[in-house]
Specification:
This protein has about 280 residues and is of the alpha/beta class. The protein has one domain: Vaccinia Virus protein VP39 (Rossmann fold). The protein is built from twelve helices and seven strands. Strand 2, helix 4 and strand 3 form a beta-alpha-beta unit. The relative contact order is 0.16. A seven-stranded mixed sheet has the order 3-2-1-4-5-7-6, sandwiched between helices. The protein is globular, with a radius of gyration of 19 Å. About 40% of the residues lie in helices and about 20% in strands. InterPro entries: SAM-dependent_MTases_sf, Trans_acon_MeTrfase_C. Keywords: Methyltransferase, Transferase. It comes from Nocardia stercoris. One of its GO terms (biological process) is methylation.
């Protein structure tokens, strides 16, 4: 389960890509706007502000996030993104920082492009950090003998992960990080997403951005990844194991991301954006 409070600790860094994504959607009077993976709902409301006449549909597959969104007045539903089907009046679909958790999500994009009405917009943003120093530190630590068996399922190598692959993806009740965050995932580069959606008949605008994020505090990169990439690890460990794992991880991250003389730390973070409009 994700922690909405931890997730919002870096709200400015996480919100900026959302606004830069949505700014490229040129829909004027959409009938229905869908936020897939709405998280705690703090950004969903901005979709309603932009398109006040539209029905805003929101969902997430994490109960804690849905609860947090509902507390903000968002009518969020508990739903796995892979089970979502577009209503006939869906004109805008936004999925921000979600699909990197879903294996083979390119197939979802193809299906959405074909099922949505003509002229509908699909806008997605996915982090592409699996080759970053932070993720390599996590992967290297998880691969040590004392952690290898304990984190096998998280690393995509346990019986759970094998069963999931054999059945074309995790069970519908699985949380979004069950795909094995410590294994390279199915995130594509901008050309890859452009090819997928162009092949489905859509017009595509795809790009990537590396944000140079300035973090502060003790172990800021550890705090950052604790709100996202480390959640599957946290869920797999008990409290004592988690404390030991993060204690071992902290110096690795500190070495990979040295603190500046003023106490701040730079964290480069790459994200891939795709905005497409369906044919018709």
């Amino acid at each position: 389960m994700w922690d909405p409070v931890q997730y919002l600790a870096f709200d400015n860094h996480r919100a900026r890509p959302f606004f830069e994504l949505v700014a490229r959607i040129r829909a004027e009077h959409p009938r229905r706007v869908v936020d897939l993976g709405c998280g705690p709902g703090h950004l969903t409301g901005t979709l309603a502000d932009r398109w006040p006449e539209a029905i805003v549909e929101a969902s997430d597959n994490d109960p804690a996030m849905v609860t947090a969104a509902r507390a903000r007045g968002i009518q969020a539903e508990l739903l796995d993104v892979r089970d979502w089907k577009p209503a006939a009046d869906t004109d805008v679909v936004v999925s921000n920082a979600v699909l990197h958790w879903v294996p083979d999500h390119a197939e979802l994009l193809t299906r959405w492009a074909r099922e949505l009405p003509g002229g509908a917009w699909i806008a997605i943003q996915v982090p592409s950090a699996f080759d970053s120093p932070s993720h390599r530190c996590i992967q290297d630590l998880a691969d040590r003998p004392e952690w290898r068996d304990r984190l096998a399922a998280v690393r995509g190598q346990g019986p759970e992960a094998v069963a999931e692959r054999d059945h074309a993806g995790p069970p519908r009740t699985a949380s979004r990080h069950r795909a094995g965050i410590l294994q390279p995932d199915s995130v594509l580069d901008p050309i890859g997403y452009a090819n997928v959606l162009s092949d489905a008949g859509a017009e595509v605008d795809a790009w990537e951005t590396t944000y140079i994020q300035r973090l502060s505090g003790e172990n800021p990169v550890l705090t950052w990844v604790s709100g996202t990439a480390l959640r599957p690890v946290r869920d797999a460990l008990d409290d004592a194991e988690w404390a030991r794992f993060t204690a071992e991880l902290a110096p690795l991250l500190a070495a990979a991301y040295p603190r500046r003389p003023d106490g701040s730390t730079w964290l480069p973070y790459r994200r891939v954006f795709t905005v497409a409009r369906t044919a018709g």
